[in-house]
Amino acid sequence: MEKGSLSRYSMEIMTAVLTGVIGVMVCAGAWQVGIGWENNAPASGYFPFYIGLLIVAGSVINLLRTLIQQRHRDDVFLDRARTRSLSRFALPVIGFAVVSVLLGLYVGTTLYVLFAMRLQGRYAWWIAALTGIAVSVSFYLIFELAFQVPLLKGPLEGWLGIY
Predict the structure, then answer these.
(1) Residue 69 class from Cβ within 10 Å (0-12 exposed, 13-18 middle, 19+ buried)?
(2) Which residues is 34 bridged to in the sheet?
(3) How many structural domains compose the chain?
(4) How many CB atoms lie within 10 A of CB 54?
(5) Where in the numbering of this chain does the DUF1468 domain appear (predicted)?
(6) pLDDT at residue number 78
(7) How far apart are CA 2 and CA 32, in angstroms?
(8) How far lies 69's CA from each of 12, 19, 96, in Å?
(9) Mean pLDDT (whole number) for 27-33
């Protein structure tokens, strides 16, 4: 394995530990709100607690399988080329999330589609921009008007009178 790369074996261990920690956190949160029965119904933490236990059990099984079998010990999970490819996908998604929180989902969606089409698909700017706008308008028509499900809005929507 080349220097600076991440093995699949270590990644499987990290993933099992991380999902196990998430499962424990789910159980702890459910425990705080109650996991027993109240009057004629389960407490609000009853089902989440058992879901958390299933997550922990699955994580322990995956961790033990990885440690015992060691079948991917030398497989490369992430090297420089794969990191570049992953970054081209992950960084725009992170940018989409940040822009959506700051400026609203419609602006975030428009910009994400525009830049994804332009930078990854090599589309012309005007086609990418029109497609991004069309996707956001479609989201508005489908979610806000048809289903009456409000999406995250930012200052531009407030300026346009969309609440």
Answers:
(1) exposed
(2) none
(3) 2
(4) 11
(5) 16-151
(6) 83
(7) 46
(8) 12, 20, 39
(9) 95
pLDDT digits (tens, 9 = 90+) for 112-138: 999 999 988 999 999 999 999 999 999
Distance CA 130, CA 113 (A): 10
Q: What is the 3-state secondary structure (H, E, C) of 5-25?
A: CEEHHHHHHHHHHHHHHHHHH
Q: Are 45 and 32 in contact (CB under 8 A)?
A: yes
pLDDT for residue 41: 86
Q: What is the pLDDT of residue 132?
A: 97
Is residue 1 in a domain?
no
- DSSP secondary structure string, 30-68? HHHH--SEETTEE-TTHHHHHHHHHHHHHHHHHHHHHHH
Taking a C-beta distance cutoff of 8 angstroms, is the pair 126, 146 a contact? no
* Pair (26, 70) in one structural domain: yes
Positive or negative, the CA dihedral 100, 101, 104, 107 is: negative
Q: What is the pLDDT of residues 2-12, one digit of tens each?
A: 676 788 888 99
* Kind and range of the H or E run holding 77: strand 76-78
74 and 90 assigned to the same domain: no
| One domain for residues 93 and 62 | no
Q: Do residue 155 and residue 93 come from a single domain?
A: yes
